[in-house]
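Lecture notes, structural biology module. Today: joint structure prediction for complexes of three components.
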Amino acid sequence: MDALDALERRIGELRAQVRRAVKARETVLARALRGELRRAEQAWDDALCASEPQDPAAAAGLSPVPAGAPGDPASMDGPGAGAPWVPASTGEPGAPGSAGGRGAGQGQWPGQGQGQGQGQGGGRVTALVPVRERVHQALGLLGVPASPRLVVAVHEAFFAGGLRGPQFTSLRRDEERSFRASPYARPYYLCAALTERLSAARGLLAVSTWPLERRIVGPLGPRVDFLTGAERVAEHLIRLTGTGERPVAAASRLLTRMARNIPGATAGTGDTAPADPAAVIRAARAELLVHLPADSGCRASAATRASRRLGDAERLFGAATLSDAARKGA
Amino acid sequence: MSVLAALARLRAVREGRAQPVATVRHCHVAERPLVFIPLTLAGEAAAPLAAMVGTDPDAPRLLVVPQPRDRDLRFAFAAELAEVLLPYVEGFGKATETVERRNAEPYERCSDAPQIMVPNAQAAAFTGLLGRSTRFRRAEGPHAVHPSVPFLGRWLTYFADRAKYPGSSLLLTATDALGLHWATGQSGLEDANLAALMGWIDPPPGLTGPRAAQEAEDPLIWPPAGPATDPGFDNEVLAPAIDAYTRGPSPRAVERIREALRGQLEPTWRLMWRAAELLRALPAGASVAQRWDADRGSFTDFLGRMAEETPPQPRRDGAVAAASRLARMERAHAAFDVQRAYDDPLVMAEYRLTGEAFAGRVAAADPGHAEGEGRSRKLRPLVTVETADPVRLAPGTVLGTPDRRGQEAEVVAAGDGSVTIKITKGMGRGRTPAPGAVPEVGERVCYSSLTGDFQAAAALPEPELTPWTHGGPPPEYVPRDEDASEEWS
Amino acid sequence: MDLLDTLRGPVPPLAHDARAIAALAANPGCARRAVLDAAGVDKDLTARHLGFPAPFGQSRFAITRGNAFEDLVKDNGCAELLRLLRDLLGLPIPQVGYHDVAQVGAHLRHSHTRALIDRAARDSDDAGTFYDHPLLSLEIAGHVSYLEPDVVAFRLGGRFHIVEIKSFAMIDGQAEPAKVAAAARQAAVYVLALRRLLEDLGHDPGRVSHEVVLVCPENFANRPAAALVDVRRELAMLRRQLTRMTRVEEIVSGLPPGITFDLVRDDAGRPARPVAELTEAIGTVPARYAPECLSTCDLCLFCRDEARACGSTDQLGRQVRDQLGGVAGIAEALALAEGAGRPADGQEEIAGLLRLADRLRAECLTAEPLAGARLEALEGAR
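The predicted structure, tokenised, for the full assembly:
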């Protein structure tokens, strides 16, 4: 045990040094020290394992694995765009989706609950479907522009799940690059929603095959899209139960969460019980009726302007804003 | 804060060490307290991260939530805490004593009661929050938890509520208890850091108080006593360890988190026991036992309610319950102030400073002085006290004295370094005073306008008669399914 | 403001956020803080260079949680916030318009905010209900600070409301008072900035409500709940402090010529100014240290050290200071208590009290205890 003791002392010292360095904003030093710390911790881990027989059962006992976690093949055979089991080779080389496999090779422990979609990598199965394909599935279901967070939630509710926020960072840029290199080479592109000023709306993803009006987001757009999305989620739940499928709990949770923010949608069920899809549809449509006239007008006029003024790429990915232009000029 | 306490702080600065502000102990310190040091995850309302808990200084139990955002692991933590806390608490139900009462049935009271010690006010508040987040849970149904969890919740709620009751020692907050007895050479704000406070009171060998307090402010030397952890520790140590656990929850990953948290908790664990020792070493004030009796009575009462499986404490008190609670607290507060002053000349000195009390030697006494004739003749001894204190008491003011607590007196005349008083109560029915009942010439005495005769209980309606202006009679609290399934995320 | 530029040195002034401005109001008597802030000096870096790094830090967990909660409230065009405002203020169903001010480039955000607020104030039909990521400004001691409230809500009875999203919990209708108070102080800064904007645009500043909407997670879940918080008191305090800040010029003009707090940064941006020299320069502007500074000011440990070194009673907190009624030094107060010093004019009363306190302490800590001896004997006589 001497080696372990010595390592523990070393680890303690290093931690203190790291924190001193961080406090003093010595970032380079802190980084180096952190590296050393990780190595020491690794060595400690190794030494510990060498010193006692492994007992994987104890591990499972210490860490309850949520049942029905995403990545569970049982929830995979959902409907939607194409077969979800697209092998990795059909994805573009270098597509962001290939980053999904980080979790592979860590399976020394049984049941290493990487559930809830927050774990590193959605596991073995989902890595096979490229990220853009998965985003497309979710957007297809919603039928309206959506934020990455909503896309993640929808995918977790109805598809294989395992999408993570960070995977979205370069998605739109990659799609734009691909489109500009060889326009319309792919059957669809994940593109931008457009503001009234025809620039790309912040933080929203859309699909290139949608009519332009659907991609316009004016002042009422976020609300209309939210209500429409809730309606689509509810319809999909009804379809699933109609065909005898048992939707995963995450789907019902998603609908309930959306329903709470629609007046009258939870009237029959209360705020904590799962929402009734039919009631959600009724409530969402009722509020939509209020907003649609003004919203449609705004969408139509912006769409007309966009098709008159913008080139193909700008129409999909947004007109350059003044600040973009300024940046390019600099 | 009085000039007296301010002066003690000035002295502490000069001496480099904390100065006493009490000559006796004003809280009960159990023989076997349960020390409880909780840590929470930064940014969350009540996400337990870890706790060090136990009754044996040499055998702390470390409880850890390796992923504090995981609801199941939180409840596992609560169940584990219950495993330590419930047997300790319920163990005190085994031995009872019969208490005789005048004009009422005798009743059974536990011979001793549990005492939980937490480091600071935030830890006491967290105890309440943890109680609030667990007491409504159920052992069956869709969000079932371990059966011990709701019981833990009710007990924690009870202890946290009782801690707000002035003079109660069932849940003892170390910084408050120490602050009642010592003044440091730093500000009250800085006293909230247990290690710094202890540094002033009991510096390690070779260190002055200020030096020890300064070291205590370095989280690398003295990790904070919680419940908030040091941000540097969070970012550099805890976050990577939790990330590693999330990637692969192996025993190694759990062990890494446990070790990290043990290092954060152990220094405070030792401090807590040292604090208990320091407090215990002070002689107990005369009223401490009486207040502990009240604590034992309250505990016995709640133990009985737990046995009858009454519903958990409601989320909020009704109007009448809240008002009567407030009234009770105010009375307890007044009583606590009086008792401390009567038990402790250094506390009484604060009242002497403001002229509400005085002490001195008896210059003259007329023990046989009486008023009235025949049957209504009553002994009203007169005593004149010479004092250097700045007395600000009008004639007729009712006085009490720590030396003869059953007596009452009133001011006859005050001025020019002497006060004449008349003893008006507690003289008995005899024609002459009992030996020792009237102070003799030359004796040192102390009298104060501070008396135990505080406000009577406010006349409040029964809960079912709550006026509509105050919401009408409260519906009896019935736990709902929603309470049991409330999210804890 | 040439003098202030000289004080700061050849670097751009540090911008204040609402928290920093709210903290100004926390210790208005501190000339040091007023001058350093007015000059836009980087106090954090200064404190670190002086060898007294600020004792603050933010946990990664807290930051993550705070951001996640704000996202939750604002997601899908502020869907959660909309629900809350419909419940809390009876916002009518058609009022859902959402404007993300950040849709324009960063350098245009302020002017865009102005334009949008102006349009809203004119009550044009397309006025929105939510203005997300607005950028307001407030002039403090001659230079402008830019402020980012979480959301500005409009159309609630024709009035603007500041929405402040915080991730501390509201449990059974109650939140930690200290945190609510801090949020209120911060929100008051936004209210003031928005009022100034309306005034500037020729509208009635009274249309910005003094009631801010505080959004917090409810109980132990992540679900947002909202409450109205009246910030009139905080506003009044803030206004008062900002008026006082104009006196900064007076303080600055009274400083010895040539004084600067320049850190003399090297090419890598690291301060290279000799510490002793900087300490002396900062020492020319008097601080008014109070223990409360420990949670609000980057320079707190430096000033505390200074207060300790000169034996000031400030270090013991305002309560002690108040008790000592104007005696500023620890040694001085002790001398009065022990009869070793002659009270100055006006100190007679406190000197008397201190001497009495000293006698009482000595008596109680050395003499035989007074209490208790005959207690039992007398219980019977009663």
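Point to remember: Strands of chain A lie at 190-191, 194-195, 206-207, 216-217.
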